[in-house]
Amino acid sequence: ADSAGSDWVQVPGGLKWVSSGRDIVVGVNSADNIYYRVGITPANPTGTDWVQVDGALSQIDVDGAYSVVGANSASGIFKSEVALAISGPQRALTGAWQQISGGLKVVSKGAAGINAEYGEF
């Protein structure tokens, strides 16, 4: 099925950083609270609500479908797994954060691994 959209749609909320992957959208707000979007379906691709998870990050990135990485305000690097939601194909952020050695302001993760910007890894 073609999942390409035809337009931008604003969703409620006030996030300073947003990242999306397969069946998951994550973000952080100005207070460094961490959220993921629930209610995402093919019929409702914008979802229905934001759910806050434990932790505090100033930046966040999802690697496609299976994990999320981010950096906090002290340049700490963290990783959390993504799990299937209770119902449907949507994924949920577990909020069980594992610290990774190093210090970064911005971090992203893809097929090649973790990419570092503005710090040491």
Molecular structure report:
This protein has 121 residues and is mainly beta. Helices cover 0% and strands 55% of the residues. The chain is built from no helices and 11 strands. It has strands at residues 15-21, 24-29, 33-38, 49-56, 59-62, 67-71, 77-84, 91-93, 98-100, 103-110, 113-120. Strands 5, 6, 7, 8 and 9 form a 5-stranded antiparallel β-sheet that branches. A hairpin with a 2-residue loop joins strand 10 (103-110) and strand 11. The chain is globular.
Question: Topology of this structure?
Answer:
Blueprint: E1 15-21, E2 24-29, E3 33-38, E4 49-56, E5 59-62, E6 67-71, E7 77-84, E8 91-93, E9 98-100, E10 103-110, E11 113-120
Antiparallel strand pairs: 1-2, 2-3, 3-4, 5-6, 6-7, 7-8, 7-9, 10-11
Query: What count of helical segments does DSSP give?
Result: 0
Name the helicity range. under 10%
The unreliable regions are none
Order of helices and strands: EEEEEEEEEEE
Q: What's the main sheet like?
A: 5 strands, antiparallel
| Average pLDDT | 81
Beta-sheet strand percentage? over 45%
The separation of the N and C termini measures 39 Å
Q: Which geometry do the CA atoms define?
A: globular
The chain-level structural class is: mainly beta
E-strand count? 11
